[in-house]
Amino acid sequence: MKEVWNNPALLKNIMADVLQDALSLGASSAEVDLNVNRGFTVTARNQEAESVEYNQDRILEITVYFGQRLGSASLSDFRPASIRAAIDAACHIARFTDQDPCAGIADKKHLSSTYPDLDLNHPWSLTVEQAIDLAVTCEKEALAKDSRLVNSEGVSISTTEGWHAYSNSNGFVGCYPASSHEVSCVLIAKQGEDMQRDYDYSVACDPQKLTPMSKIASTAAERTLSRLGARSLSTRQVPVIFAADRARSLLGHFAAAIAGGNLYRKASFLIDRIGTRVFPKHITIDQRPHLLHDLGSAPFDDDGVITRPNVFIQEGILNMYSLGTYSARKLGLETTGNSGGVFNLFINTGDKDLAALLKHMGTGLLVTDLMGQGVNLLTGDYSRGATGFWIENGEIQYPVEEITIAGNLNDIYAQIVEVGNDVDWRGNIKTGSILIGNMMVAGG
Q1: Average pLDDT over residues 391-398
Q2: Which of 232, 313, 333, 404 is the most buried (most CB within 10 A)?
Q3: Is the Cβ–Cβ distance between 37 and 27 less than 8 Å?
Q4: Where are the beta strands (DSSP E) in 169-283?
């Protein structure tokens, strides 16, 4: 068959054939999800190429429904005979599964024949040789910043572009291209017996929006050097600022807690909390899925439902959950177009940058890195290893490590004093640094 890469018409034909074959075999409905991508990653270390990896992946996922019994199969072989065998397998499985009253594709009322073009595909005209040269130069610049920078764990550059397509037997057909490019630099510093590691990175769907290599080298060097001389703290309760790139995880726990899958499984501390206060009144959290050329954007969700702006927190009050078709049915609600998660989650910010937030806090802890997975989504209990800086009179005094920060997400969210305007745009969750009024800090 023809090469599927960069051939949306062929991708749509494949999906149409899958749906037709599934229905001809007795399925009452069916859906198909198709992804193809290609790219490469280079890593340079010690001023030479350490690795070059090429990727060219494709996967076809088929789900069929016999009434409310479902079967599924996936494959990477797109030859017609292989696809037909996968459809046969999915249909065979469906005939033996239990009835699930919530199973099925999205209702027609939630589907649309049109969806927005979000301009998500921006190829990087970069050869492997050019990428290696850039990585080597970045590492050389970074290590030249200070004699205490003794080594690196490498500079990596990756570029990927691909197509995502989805179709179902209720008439939805969607297909769009997207790209992703990333640069990272990881350094090691040594002073006496003390060795520290840190990094910087940039990621974007448009290579023109990547942070310049020289800036990545400088930031990685500054961050790594700043950690030298780190010490622990005695146990205390103090205000805590999560730097923007770490504050993202706090909102990530919120996104998980309002996700339909966790709610119907009774695995969230926000069950039955619609209409109640979760954050202070000055906090609003919303989704903006249609930002142009942004990695967190998507025109439709994993069910083919057109994504939409959603306000999850309105002036501190939990306004709605994040639901896909299946989880909405399980909860007796309507889909919010969030099958697969949230798309560009924002929290409203104040007018202070990080330096001003530190001044406002006065004395406390600035968290710049987190370790471990110590978050219980059912109870909201939170305990994670951390590193960062001890702050007095709004100024950094010294780096800290080997500490644990703890609390409960209910209390942590309720104690958000302010969100900085230093928004980190590198992920699906957009937030500035977050100042928490009080947390337990346990040292060694």
Answers
A1: 97
A2: 313
A3: no
A4: 173-191, 194-204, 236-242
